[in-house]
Every structure is written in structure tokens, then in C-alpha cells.
Design brief:
394 residues; 7-stranded mixed β-sheet; 3-stranded antiparallel β-sheet; globular; binds pyridoxal-5'-phosphate
Length: 394
């Protein structure tokens, strides 16, 4: 078997060697607590400032607007919970979508059940894109926050963020976006797009796991999320994850520096694989928008196939992919995202997500599609449903 082909970069990515190199001294040499007064601790403090600047530069933000967290989930929780608490005197209504990550959806459910929030979950069209008319119609005088993800982690569709930002601004409503899949993959400038808050996570862009940030535009009321020490401008207490923060800064700078070349390469392989799959395998559907799409996302549904069986058989060839989102695999419910774009249960069950990195070559792509063809054919030959269907075709 030999080589592994890793096609699950939406779940997590390899930490880039230059990121690891940059982090190492902050474990063993400059391990001082950044809050301490002696000179030895200053190294850590300076490194945090540098990382904050590196990230702020990518977003066109100010470094004081970047708050480090333990990852995307925490950033999403913070954005929703703290905004709700700070603005609930103004209103209790939040608008989000049916295709958000569970870090948003489950937080919304909590706010709804336990804190008296009213949540509108917007539908999306068959390509997984929010309809702006629906958003406008959902706004009430009670609406305090719109939270729409930048790009979807399952089907890769990219939302009309600028238009959503404009609508939010017109109505004086805050706009948060979960950009965990988009940051470092597509250009994002918070001012141009009218974004007030943005969540991101390092491990999705070749940084380390367990470190993220929330961008909060200056002037927005936002309570302390973790109470304790004065770290992160008194909003998120706890001794800073200095190596993680350093790694994140380098990963962000690297993602920006390599974006054009890397994503061009990914788009070429992505479209090549999609073309081969749709040309060579019958009864297949591509999910998500073909144009407004993350450079590295492929999501396809094969009729008469169980996604889980497909994954196991791909794994036999060293190919790592995903059937839904990593968080829901293990459960038998089809993905909420695939249901939201209108796929019937049985089609949604036969779905496969492959998310590329710059390391994936044309040879890897060919090997994967060749194996996929074989496996799909094999699985179908064992399926009574497929047999019935083929009989009816004759
Ligand atoms: C991965 C992911 C998250 C969660 O990020 P963690 O750092 O793993 O907590 C949130 N939203 C989206 C869209 C993601 O893809």
C-alpha cells in the first residue's frame, strides 16, 4: 500500500514545518509567563504581539482587535454568547443559517433553550447559498446579531459575505462570521466586507491545534468570556498559549503568502477530480456551488452507496476522506448541511467529502478516482436497490 493520501484537510491539516520551528523555542527557551515582570518573560510577550500583528495584517484589522482563544469552537461560543448577553437589553433575536457548524448551531440551541433568545435559521438554496431576500425578511427590531459562516466545511460553498455585511450595517445589526474554513484560503478584509466579528482556528491552516482567535471590531460591546486574569484585554483570562500563538501567527502569514499559488493548484486538481468523477462514474451528484466554492473542497453523492462503506474501502488504499463532517460521523443521521440543500436521506447517505491540500498531486488524484470507480462499482454490484433500479432501466 505504502503512501497515504490525506484528503481530509477540512477536518484538520498538517502543521507546517516552518510553523513547528517557530514554536519550539517557546517551549524550552522562552518559557516565561508573559504576564511576569522580569526581562526573561518579555520574549513571550513580544512574540504574542508579533503574532497578533501577523494575523491582523491578513484581515486588514488592528492588532488590538484580535483575541486569542482555544480554537474555532470557543470563538464561535464567545461571539454568540457574549454578544447576546451584552445586547439583550436591545433585543433577543439572532439570525443564523441551517448549514452552520455545530459550534454555532448548538450554541444557538443553548441560547434559545436556556437564555431566552429567539433564533432564525435561514434556509439555503440547492447550492448551499443564503438568499439575501430571506435574510432581509427575517430582520426584526429585536435583531441584534447575524451570524453566517464564510464558507461551509462540508460542501465548500462561499456565502455573499459583503452583501450580508451591507445588510447588517444598514439595519444597525452586528455581523459575525465563522471563517474557520475561509481564513487563509480566500482573501478576507474585515472592513471591505463589513464584518464585525470573525472566528478562526489555526489547525485548519497548517497551524497547531488548540489555538484560535476571535476578531472583535473596536467599539463593539463584548463582555469578558473567561473570568480571571487580565490577559487578552481582560476578556479571556488564562496564561497565554505562547507556542500556539506564535505558530498561529506564522501559519497565518504563511497562508497569506502562499495563497495565490497554493489555491490555484488546488482548484486545478479539484476541478480535474470533479470532472473525472462526473464523467466516469454514473449516478453521481456534485454538492455545493461550483463557482463560489472553497479551492480545496470536493463533495459528491453516489446513488445506491453507503458513505461509511465507501470510506472504509478507501481507507484500505490509504485514502483518508470524510462522509459528512467529522463531528457527526459515528452517528447515522445524514449531515444537516446535505439535508438543507435538499438532498433526500438516501442520497445524502452516499456522500463523500474530499478536501485537498497543496501536497496532493495529479497522480494522487488519478489514483483516488481510479479506486473510487472500482469501489463504487463493487458496492453497487452488492446492492439490491441498484439491482432493482437497473432492471427497471431495461
Ligand atoms: C473546524 C471548524 C470549527 C471548529 O474549530 P475547532 O478549532 O476545531 O474548535 C468551527 N467552524 C467550522 C466551519 C469548522 O470547520
Amino acid at each position: 500500500m505504502g503512501k497515504m493520501i490525506y484528503l481530509d484537510n477540512a477536518a484538520t491539516t498538517r502543521t507546517a514545518p516552518e510553523v513547528v520551528q517557530a514554536m519550539l523555542p517557546y517551549f524550552t527557551e522562552y518559557y516565561g509567563n508573559p504576564s511576569s515582570v522580569y526581562d526573561f518573560a518579555a520574549k513571550g510577550k513580544e512574540a504574542i504581539t508579533t503574532a497578533r500583528e501577523q494575523i491582523a495584517n491578513v484581515l486588514g484589522a488592528k492588532k488590538e482587535e484580535i483575541y486569542f482563544t482555544a480554537g474555532g469552537s470557543e470563538s464561535d461560543n464567545w461571539a454568540l454568547k457574549a454578544t447576546f448577553e451584552a445586547y439583550k437589553a436591545k433585543g433577543n433575536h439572532i439570525i443564523t443559517t441551517k448549514i452552520e457548524h455545530h459550534a454555532i448551531l448548538h450554541t444557538c440551541e443553548y441560547l434559545e433553550k436556556e437564555r431566552g433568545a429567539k433564533i432564525t435559521y435561514l434556509d439555503v438554496d440547492e447550492n448551499g447559498i443564503v438568499k439575501l431576500e430571506d435574510l432581509e425578511k427575517a430582520i426584526t427590531p429585536e435583531t441584534i446579531l447575524i451570524s453566517v459562516m464564510f464558507a461551509n466545511n462540508e460542501i465548500g460553498s462561499i456565502q455573499p459575505i459583503r452583501e450580508i455585511g451591507m445588510i447588517a450595517k444598514e439595519h444597525g445589526i452586528l455581523f459575525h462570521t465563522d471563517a474557520v474554513q475561509a481564513f487563509g484560503q480566500v482573501p478576507i478584509k474585515v472592513d471591505e466586507l463589513g464584518i464585525d466579528m470573525l472566528s478562526s482556528s489555526a489547525h485548519k491552516i497548517n497551524g497547531p491545534k488548540g489555538i484560535g482567535f476571535l476578531y472583535i471590531r473596536k467599539g463593539i460591546k463584548n463582555r469578558s468570556f473567561v473570568h480571571g486574569g487580565a490577559q487578552e484585554r481582560k476578556r479571556r483570562a488564562g496564561t497565554e498559549n505562547v507556542p500556539g500563538i506564535v505558530g498561529y501567527g506564522v501559519a497565518a502569514e504563511r497562508a497569506e503568502r502562499t495563497m495565490e499559488e497554493r489555491t490555484a493548484k488546488e482548484i486545478e486538481i479539484r476541478d480535474y477530480m470533479i470532472r473525472r468523477i462526473t464523467d466516469e462514474i454514473p449516478y453521481v451528484k456534485v454538492n455545493g456551488d461550483l463557482k463560489r466554492r472553497l479551492p480545496n473542497n470536493i463533495n459528491v453523492s453516489f446513488q445506491f452507496i453507503e458513505g461509511e462503506s465507501l470510506l472504509l474501502m478507501l481507507d484500505n488504499y490509504g485514502i483518508c476522506a470524510s462522509s459528512g463532517s467529522a463531528c457527526t460521523s459515528g452517528s447515522l443521521d445524514p449531515s444537516h448541511v446535505l439535508l438543507a440543500i435538499g438532498l433526500p436521506h438516501e442520497i445524502a447517505h452516499g456522500s463523500l467529502r474530499m478536501t485537498l491540500s497543496e501536497e496532493i498531486t495529479k497522480e494522487d488524484a488519478d489514483f483516488t478516482v481510479d479506486k473510487l470507480k472500482e469501489i463504487v462499482q463493487n458496492l453497487r454490484s452488492m446492492s439490491p436497490l441498484y439491482e432493482d433500479f437497473m432492471k427497471k432501466q431495461k
